[in-house]
Amino acid sequence: MPHYLIAQSELPEEREARRRRAGKSSGETYAATLEQMQPGIKTTIVSPADDAASGFSNDKLAAFDAVFLTGSPMHVYDDSSEVRRQLDFMLRVFAAGIPSFGSCAGLQIAVAAAGGQVRKMPERMEAGIARRITPTDAGRSHPLLAGRPSSWDAPAIHGDEVEELPPGATLLAGNAVTWVQAAEIRFDRGVFWGVQYHPELALREIALAIAAQAGDLVEAGLANREEDVKAWSDDLDALYEAPDDRALRWRLGVDGEFAEERLRRRELANFLSNLRMLRG
Predict the structure, then answer these.
(1) Domain range for residue 161?
(2) Does one domain contain both 154 and 253?
(3) How many structural domains comprise the chain?
(4) Is 198 one of the catalytic residues?
């Protein structure tokens, strides 16, 4: 039975705020998604950025089949003890040679730990839907993106982005908003596959996150009024309930790659199916 370690970088107050909003912390969402995809697996959730988080030796990490890094509000360019603990954890994962996967802040943590750079997005945040993600030449044949079409949309919400990939990384996909939407990082003994978007999230969770940040989206110029954000969020929530609704798909400008759960989770499914190869 596979045993997966899920590392959430949300701090305690952020986890509680997310539970109040969406019912789960980011780690709990990851665990639920993985358990739906592979019934019977075992998951362990840890919070390496917390003061009380225990360290992980190579032997302890070796007990897991893979490590998953969640999204969170963490800014990995901040020089804080929480960020340093999170980056130290990722360095241990790389050193242990355990295959790892991350989304959003999870990608940024792996990038920073391996020597790359992350920054606040200079123009605007990407919120709700990452549009027209396009694979690079390397990405077209990479197993992380197997089954993806020539371009696709995905759930996303982030105000930070990868500025520079670390040595040993391969750019797999990008779009007009941020040049790194998917990447592979090989560092120390480890291999990491990551995306800037959120294949693990249900559309309802994205809808709730958008609604919670309505004021920020108006301030960023992505909406004129908070009421417009609420209406858009309501459409996303309705699509969660009725993913085949053609009128909703048309209004949101999405197809099955975004609307259908199985297709939305492609990258996670591809990572899981390649674990044996990644462990070498």
Answers:
(1) 3-201+265-279
(2) no
(3) 2
(4) yes
Catalytic residue among 158, 198, 205, 267: 198
197 with 238, same domain: the answer is no
Concatenated DSSP letters for the chain?
A: --EEEEE----HHHHHHHHHHHSS-HHHHHHHHHHHHSTT-EEEEE-TTSTTPPP--HHHHTTSSEEEE---S--TTS--HHHHHHHHHHHHHHHHT--EEEETHHHHHHHHHTT-EEEE-SS--EEEEEEEEEE-HHHHT-GGGTT--SSEEEEEEESEEEEEPPTTEEEEEE-SS-S-SEEEEEETTEEEEEESS-TT--HHHHHHHHHHTHHHHHHTTS-S-HHHHHHHHHHHHHHHH-TT-HHHHHHHT--HHHH-HHHHTHHHHHHHHTHHHHH-
Instruction: Give tens-digit pLDDT for 165-180.
Output: 999 899 999 999 999 9
Catalytic residue among 104, 126, 161, 184: 104
Known catalytic membership, residue 104: yes
pTM beyond 0.90, yes or no: yes
- Residues 23 and 156 reside in one and the same domain: yes
Average pLDDT estimate for 219-229: 92
**For residue 45, pLDDT beyond 80:** yes
Q: What's the pLDDT band for 59 if we cut at 50, 70, 90?
A: confident
Q: Give the model confidence (pLDDT) of 104-135 as tens digits.
A: 999 999 999 999 999 999 988 999 999 999 99
219 is catalytic: no
Q: Are residues 126 and 240 in the same domain?
A: no
Active-site option among 10, 28, 200, 267:
200
